[in-house]
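Proteins fold reproducibly. Next comes an illustrative record:
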Amino acid sequence: MLTNTGEWSEIADVVVVGSGAAALTAATLAADGGAEVVLVEKEDALGGTSGVSGGGMWIPNNHHLAPAGLDDSREDAIAYITRIADGRALDPQLIEVFVDTAPEMLAYLEAHTPLRTRPVTNLHDYYEVIRDRVPGCKAFSRTVEPCAFSAREALGAWADRIAVRSTLLSLGASTTLQEDLSGRGGVSANLDELARREREGIRVKGAALVSALVAGLLERRVRLWTSSPAEELVLAADGSVAGVRVATPDGDRRLGARRGVILACGGFEWNRDMVLAYFGYDIKPLSPGGNTGDGHLMAMEAQARMGNMWSYWGNGAAFDPSVLGPDGRPFPQMLKGLGPGSIIVNRHGRRFMHGGYTYNDFPKTFGAFDQEYAGYPNTPPAWIIFGRTVKERRQILTVRPGDPAPEWIARADSVRGLAEKIGLDPDELDATVLHYNKYAAKGDDPEFQPVRSRAGSPLPETPEPVVGPPYYAIQQWPASLGTNGGCRVNENGQVLGARGPVVEGLYAAGNTSAAVLGGAYVGGGTPIASGMTFGYLAGRHAAARPSREI
């Protein structure tokens, strides 16, 4: 943190830190409010986590619903989010702000930028299967996705600097969410159409969302600085935020902000010290590696009030050594169990979760304290135990049915032998599998009532025994799509102060802010929708502030 005692390298009205959907939306609204805007991005590519995401946005009461004959309401959306947040929303009023503003934000962007969206009709609310116990939950989709976008035509040289999905196998880089979820994605897709999209530089999912918003910023002549991490906030004598120090390729630059700085630069899932400090156990990040908590640390130095730091957007993960990340090391892949015919056990060989729950809820039990055990028996990694029936019928990351099991999939001719190979107690694992198989043979599972989630693999509700020999095992890890704790904000996206109502001149949105929905992941694209909504509010409010002498 710097006190403003030197000369500015450059001055703008609003400085936006980050380039995900929340940051791009904030920059759009700030520019439309008459502000001169500079956006700074740590990485060479624009888009952050949003750019490699599925690109969905969970927008209640969005303008696609009524024409399709679908009945949504403000009251239902608030009731639904409130139930899933279950008291964890730090400011319940912000749930109402989100519900009221999200459809306005979407309509505004479609009217004023190149972004166009369409419903993802086969991605229903995530708690639909128990909607009789969850008020406001709908048996239809409130999620929209960006339409395919011709990035090369609209962006020119910038098209090659948009982050795209390359290391996650679960969703195709060239197919839409609607196509993926309807079974028309991947190898079954129209190969000619996929080739055309690649040839013409057409982007889908998060890359389409980012590309469309970047195109809008270029039309507005917003300056975009890449490879330029923000490293320190610059404070005025009265403690307000006056600007930021940025490490550009040409050296450090002090960038002043007459009206405000908006932090929307991702979470801290790649900062292992912060992860262990706030979560207490290891999680595997599935996002781009630049999310190291830079905005959080800068905000804390400026006396920001933080919240929700214990929470993250979750998933399950496994490692396939043939899938490498940018650093050349194996990159975790989304995987939460293998469905019927498999079980997940902890390091004591006991079941502690079911793979059919929503992906955000799935990893939470890894950090659970067990009173009887007097400790944390589910500390990762766990193990997925399965037999030949699962191996023969489904693809396991890059391993197709019929392929021989590679070394990273443990194999043995008995459950006891498998336990010895992976370091579990043979008696415990054998007893666990026998107990599970006894009931699964009758289509029952007394430990976990049959569950199915549209949010993950479409698991049949009927359990099946673990059938072998041979028997197999792979490691199961908790994973993060991004953390969701950070700066607490008000209805304008202003950062609340630890020693005052707000930190003047500072805003936050996206995963740099404390999740306004309390970490509730109610449908596909909840994080992106909430981040964009509060980016919209922050950009609009910052632009409307009077210019300060800095």
User: Anything to note?
Assistant: The chain has 14 helices and 24 strands. Residues 62 and 103 are 5 Å apart (CA to CA).
